[in-house]
Every structure is written in C-alpha cells, then in structure tokens.
Design brief:
This protein is of the alpha+beta class. The chain is built from two helices and 21 strands. It has a three-stranded antiparallel sheet, with no helix packed on it. Strands 1-6 form a two-stranded antiparallel sheet. It is elongated and about 100 Å long. About 20% of the residues are buried.
Length: about 260
C-alpha cells in the first residue's frame, strides 16, 4: 500500500511539470520566434517478483512474469522547432526566417547567441541590433543618411543613399543551423546558446543547403497552438486529479487496516 502512495506521488509530480511547461507555452503564445516545448516522461524501475520466462515447474515457464512499476519521472523537455505563422508588419527591420535556421547576435561578452526573433532595430552607432541591443554577428552598419533599407531573401542588405542612383550593399545576413536545434540551451529573452547536444553550428547564406530564406517586413510568431495547449492543460489536470485519488484510496485502505481489531 505504501508503494501505491509513492507511485501516485511520482505521477502528480510529473503532471505538475507538464502543467508548468504548458503554462509557459501559453504565456509565450504572442512572443515572436518562440518555440513551444513538451514534457517527456519515462517509467521508473520495476519491482520484479518473478522474471518473465522463469521456471514455474518441470518443463514450464511463466509467460509474463510478475513486475510492478514504481511510477514515472520527467525525462526532459523537448523544444518543437516547427514553423510559426507569419505576421506582416511592413517594418523594414522586421525579418522572418522561412525555414530552418537562426539569427546570430553577439552579447556584451563577445559570445555568439542565437534566436528566431527577427524584430531588429538600429542603435545610436548605426548598428543593426536586436531588442536587447546585441548587434548581428554579420556586423551590419547603416549610414545615417540612408533613406531606405532593403533585405533580400538571400540576406543581402542594401540601402539607398541620396545622390547615388544605385543601392549600396552593406553586407550579408547569414543564417545558422544546428544538427540538433532541440539541444540548444534557452537563456530567456528569445536567446539560445550552443551546447554539446546541439552540435556545431553551420553558418551560411539563407536559402542555401537547406537554410531558410528571409522575409522582410514580417515577423515569425510563436508556433504555440492555444487550443492544443488547452487540451494538454485539461488532460494534465485530470491526470493529476486521478493520481491524487489513488493516494486518497491508498490512505483509506491503510486506515481500514489500522482499524482492524
């Protein structure tokens, strides 16, 4: 009976983790470039009273054995890198990646960080930066007298300068891909960091070797489907309630045992 209480407690803990992951997805349903996560579970060790195939007599074997599970544990959280929907903003510094890949920015410590959030700005030095002021790794600098900014699907950035009939090419925005993007570490603020699980980054021109292309004047929204998250929320809540009822049933059975005369 004590085993049932502990097993149900692991189920409640696992469902609590699921609800926390789901709530974070819902909270970020409007965050540009956000990728939803899902909790993944594994069953715990089994108490084996009889191994499957064990001898039960002369020339006979147990076809199933007898094993009792000891609960569940959270194995990890999987980030789902499916494409989010596009929102047209008509802002020339809003960029969306259509396909695989990430933008690369440089933090104040000189470390490369990665993001799908393409809401870019121009700082006081004319650098193209993200919302936190981190410049793009490509080092794009916009002249103060630039009139228009054009970003091609291949990442080429050009501006129109007064007195010059032809656009001036400023540089190339490159896209970074990883063998396992789910292995990137989330840092908050729409930032991701390379880890041993993500593999080594590959940098290149958008639209080449499977990388996505850039769409100017658009933002990629979160890939969270609120209806799906609400369903997960309901199923997680019900599973939590059922596990709590198992604990209540086990407690009542223990009480009955304690009241035996």
């Amino acid at each position: 009976m004590i085993r049932a209480l502990q097993t149900a407690a692991t189920g409640m803990t696992a469902q609590q983790t699921k609800l926390e992951v789901t709530s974070n997805n819902i909270a970020n349903s409007s965050t540009p470039g956000f990728k939803k996560s899902r909790a993944e579970f594994q069953d715990l060790l089994y108490q084996t009273d009889r191994t499957p195939g064990a001898a039960t007599g002369q020339g006979t074997q147990s076809p199933t054995g007898m094993q009792v599970g000891l609960g569940v544990k959270t194995a990890g959280t999987q980030r789902v890198h499916s494409q989010g929907s596009m929102q047209n903003t008509n802002n020339p510094l809003d960029l969306a990646i259509e396909g695989r890949g990430f933008f690369s920015v440089v933090d104040p410590n000189g470390e490369l960080l990665y993001s799908r959030d393409g809401s870019l700005k121009i700082d006081a030095q004319g650098r193209v930066v993200n919302t936190d002021g981190y410049p793009l790794a490509a080092g794009i600098n916009v002249p103060p007298d630039a009139q228009t900014i054009s970003v091609g699907g291949d990442g080429s950035v050009s501006v129109q300068i007064p007195g010059q009939p032809e656009p001036v090419l400023l540089g190339q925005i490159e896209i970074v891909t990883f063998p396992n993007p789910a292995g990137l570490q989330s840092l908050g603020r729409n930032m991701l960091k390379e880890t041993a699980a993500s593999g080594q980054p590959t940098v290149g021109q958008p639209g080449i070797e499977g990388r996505g292309t850039l769409a100017q004047g658009s933002l990629e929204l979160s890939n969270v489907e609120v209806v799906e998250e609400m369903i997960d929320l309901i199923t997680g809540q019900r599973a939590y309630e059922v596990n709590s009822r198992v604990i209540r049933a086990g407690d009542e059975m223990l009480q009955s045992t304690a009241n035996l005369r």
